[in-house]
Amino acid sequence: MSRISFDLDSTRSEDRTPRTLTLKAGFTVDLDWLQSERLQRNTLTCICLALVLLAFALSLGAALRLKMHTEPPYWVYAAVPPALSKVEYGHERYKSLNFVHDIYFGQLTSNYAKDINRIVADILAKHPVATDRSDRIVNQADDKGIVVFTEISFRLFGYRIEGVLYLYYIILGVSAALFAYSYRRNPHALLLLAAFLLLHRMILPMIKYDAQLGGITALRCMPVLAMIACMHSILYFFESKVDGRKIAALILQIALIVFVVHIRTTALWELVLVAGASLMALSLRKGPEAESSTRLPFLKNCWPAAIPLAATIVLVLLLSAHRTYGFPEAYHRDGEAVTRPFWHNIYSGFAFHPAMAERYQLKVDDFTVLLATKQYLLENNRADAWEAAGGNSPNYTGMRWKAYDDAVKDMLIARCTEHFSECMTTFIYYKPLSMIKNVLWVIGWIKLPPDMDIFVSKFPEIGTVVKEQFTETSRQLDRHKERGRMWLRYMSAMIAVFAVLAVLRPRRNELMPVLATAGILAAGSTVPSIVGYAAPHTIAEAALAIPLLVVLLSAGFAMWLRRSAKPGSLQPDMKARGRI
């Protein structure tokens, strides 16, 4: 220990009368703390937290610059009538009062916030009280949770459609704050969060310029909102010990994932990752231990590993109960689906297999799957099932989507039983290949999205519209320089920062859990594209998680190089089980 020491003393004469007084310091300075591990960790933590705040600000700034708050996507402004009916008039949730619906869509000519807010103000001025309680259900074949999301934004920010984006970023910020609090002692985890938020900013232009999306609050993009919570939940299993506060933060994150699942069912892959990781930890008797002495039978002190699974099960059951009993009876009585069709999109993906597409005349345009379903039912003498599903209604306006999706499931099983190898090839080759090419397109390594002809429909209502939209999205990204060199610069900067951190703080017990989390997240993010289909408007999660994994792998590579150059230079774990 280095010290600087002085004494305090006095000089007296022989007759003991003080003549002079000499002051010789009375303090000690310890210089060793400047080189302490704790100071290094705290300094790096502060730097990484600053990067998290910067990345969040860049994402929010980009969303505002792209006018995602004043030009909301279709799903958001379509949710205004049922949300307004509930918040202002106290009507039953997930239903629109007829006068609200008729006035709103009768006057709506654009998706500009000023027009939407003006129409809402006009409705409130003309109808301060709802004298007519006739209503209608939200009959779009999609998830209905966006109605609840819009209701919350109205309650927080008033009847302004901009509040939906503000609420999105509030939730994103809270999720990031819970993550940062729980893993504040691991600079690598904090840098993972900063990189995620920066990549979140980087995919925003692609989302905005794609007419199939239009904004980060589009339902197809909403699973991104729960990805920080998913990372938090996976990283939890690599902790050595957890206390009540960390468990509470984890449960809040899982609750967020379940809420996002209600908004967009495809976010289920995130819950599956969390539950699967919990089952794996329990089967291997791994996972965090409780800091308290509480023990449970069979689990002993490793019971915290069961918390994610238990929370997932309880919250999913609550969501299921809400969908069963919280929706108006009309949804169940009339065969309407309270969520989006599931099997329909899976079957659409067979359009990527040349033989399947040719045999059943499939395109990714919805209409060809409807016709294929009709053909299948007629082949099996089930014309009554097609009629019951509303298939013979004009322009499919009377479809009962639950009954229809059940028929698609039967068709999918029958076709895949008959053509098993072709079905499997679609899932393990054609769709993954298309997904990878789409990610490369987002980054800028491919000029145009792949497989665009699959989206060209023979039906005039669609025709080449989707293909033209993809081409225009590419043109806008290149025009505003939002891919290619921009992605290269940002990713290079992130790789450099991670590599520097890995060299400055080569803690395997901190870096490896973060690297594993990024890998698990990237694998899970491919599920929507592989199960459904890959397209510019369906790959937001993969376009974010796969580059994130590439960045993290660079840090692991730098750590490996350091270890190879200087054997024994890597600092071992401080304990048998690493602490995050």
Side-by-side strand order of the widest sheet: 1-2
Give the overall pLDDT as a whole number.
88
Largest sheet: 2 strands, antiparallel
Backbone structural class = mainly alpha
Distance between the termini: 28 Å
Strand content: under 5%
> What string gives the helices and strands in order?
EEHHHEHHEHHHHEHHEHHHHHHHHHHHHH
Sequence stretches where pLDDT stays below 50 over 5 or more residues:
1-13, 573-580
User: What's the helix count?
Assistant: 24
Q: Determine Rg (CA atoms, Å).
A: 29 Å
User: Using DSSP, what is the number of strands?
Assistant: 6
Helix share, percent: 55-70%
- From the spread of the alpha carbons, the general shape counts as globular
Defining key terms:
mainly alpha; 24 helices; disordered C terminus; globular; single chain; 580 residues
Spell out the blueprint of helices and strands.
Blueprint: E1 11-12, E2 18-20, H1 37-65, H2 74-78, H3 80-87, E3 95-97, H4 98-107, H5 113-126, E4 135-137, H6 145-157, H7 163-182, H8 187-209, H9 227-236, E5 241-242, H10 244-263, H11 268-284, E6 289-290, H12 307-325, H13 329-333, H14 343-348, H15 354-360, H16 367-379, H17 383-388, H18 401-418, H19 420-443, H20 465-479, H21 485-504, H22 508-525, H23 527-532, H24 540-565
Parallel strand pairs: 5-6
Antiparallel strand pairs: 1-2, 3-4
